[in-house]
Amino acid sequence: MIIGEQKPIAEIWEMIKGYRRIIVFGCNSCVAVCHAGGIKQAEILASLLRMMAAQEGIEKNVEFLACERQCEPEFIMSQAETLKKQDLVLSIACGVGVNLVSALILDTPIFPGLNTEFYGAVPRAGVFEEVCAGCGNCILHLTGGICPIARCAKSILNGPCGGTNKGKCEISPDVDCAWYLIVERMKHLGTFERLFEIQPPKNWATSTHGGPRRVVIEYIAKLEETEEKKGQGGRSR
Amino acid sequence: MSTVSKTTNEEVASVVEKPHDTRASFNPNIIAFACHYCAFAAADLAGVMRLTYPTGVKVIRIPCTGKLDHSYVLRAFEQGVDGVFVAGCLVGQCHFLEGNVNAGKRVGHLKKLLESVRIDPARLEMYNLSGSQGPRWAEICIEFTERIRMLGPSPIRIAKEEKNRGKRCDNL
User: Fold this and answer.
1) pLDDT 10s digits, A45-67
2) Helices in A105-236 by DSSP H: which ranges?
3) Which residue of A has its CA nearest to B156?
4) Disulfide engineering: A94 pairs with which of A116, B3, B102, B167, CB 3.0-4.6 Å?
5) Which domains does chain B have, with CATH numbers?
6) Do B156 and A9 touch (CB under 8 A)?
């Protein structure tokens, strides 16, 4: 799940100051689960911005709206008419949503109301932890299901480093040493010996170091293309 | 019961809100969200006992304080209400087990939200009382009204009044 955190109100206010007709556009998927960008948060943020405007004596029309997923065009396009009528869309989806709305709603500026943080798990209500870095080359089978790329501060593949201290990382006593967890887990599974195999340097080209990534499932993409052509030929789908 | 001294209120208000003149004749407009099972019954009892409390307190009955939504409180402040308090059952006595505890957490979160838009968080409070505490209801109303009187009108109310005054002048 993508974890996001709402930007401070003062920062949002600075961004939207010059616009009159604004809509706070929420996303009811990941960011709704982390209490940052769902319809509920959109309603709250719109109300807070209206209060700021009232105090500043500025005329502003701030409404709110949400769709199921801002990372898919069909959900955005179902709200397109409303979005196009605004001076500004303040999207409180993750960065993916902001990018896609910008690509689809061309004549209206789309601003982010959230800081997109990481891919996270929810170990307990209200707590979100980074457990995957999305590096594009998964090695969890070698590390007992614990990712050293995301959870080790140095992302080392043959750990632990000298900074491990009673199961905690040297960066903070609140952070678990990922390699301590890996060793303990591998011992528990009876596969500890596997850790003696030295891992070669990782190919980071599959991560963001190789530029923006793209996955295409050919048979689905081709099917869509054919359907579109049929549609253009005047045949009903 | 939480109380905020006059000095603290004034100090907080001077930091969070824009300074303003507190009018002696100022009658605070207060919304009280009261739980059907306790605070509302206490308010009823206060009436039966013929206890007097400030007329500026308008009571809204909710089935449980757990029903309190962020938007109820925010909308009230948006409309220019000077203060809001939420009154639920005593801790451990909620008819729905923990609605009052959840409301307490929500009020805590709302206080932070209000502060972020320069509204003094002391304008919002959570109280716990039982249905038999009619005198306590009257006491809460008096105490909270006094607190809001010290803080003065809500900055949104001031802005709205100024705006209306401006409109009236334009019409002359």
Assistant:
1) 999 999 999 999 998 999 999 99
2) 148-151, 178-189, 218-232
3) A55
4) A116
5) 26-171 (3.40.50)
6) no
Contact across the interface for B118 and A55, Cβ inside 8 Å: yes
Which amino acid is present at B62?
Answer: I
Per DSSP (E only), the strands in B23-161 are 30-35, 57-62, 83-88, 124-128
Smallest Cα–Cα separation from B59: which of B79, B42, B80? B42
Sign of CA dihedral A134, A139, A144, A147: negative
Give the tens place of pLDDT for each residue, B83-135: 999 999 999 999 999 999 999 999 999 999 999 999 999 999 999 999 999 99
Mutate which: B105, B115, B117, vs A, most A CBs within 10 A: B117
Q: Are A37 and A71 in contact (CB under 8 A)?
A: no
DSSP bridge pairs for B30:
B57, B83
Provide the pLDDT confidence category of residue B162 given band limits of 50, 70 and 90. confident
Domains of chain A by start residue, with CATH: 2-118 (3.40.50.2300), 140-204 (no CATH)
Nearest-Å Rg of the Cα atoms of chain B is 16
The pTM of the full predicted model, rounded to 2 decimals, is 0.87
Interface test with A, best of B70, B72, B105, B116 (most A CBs within 10 A): B116
Chain A CB contacts of B160 below 8 Å: 54
Length of chain B: 172
ipTM for the predicted complex comes to: 0.83
Cβ A43–B71 below 8 Å, yes or no? Answer: yes
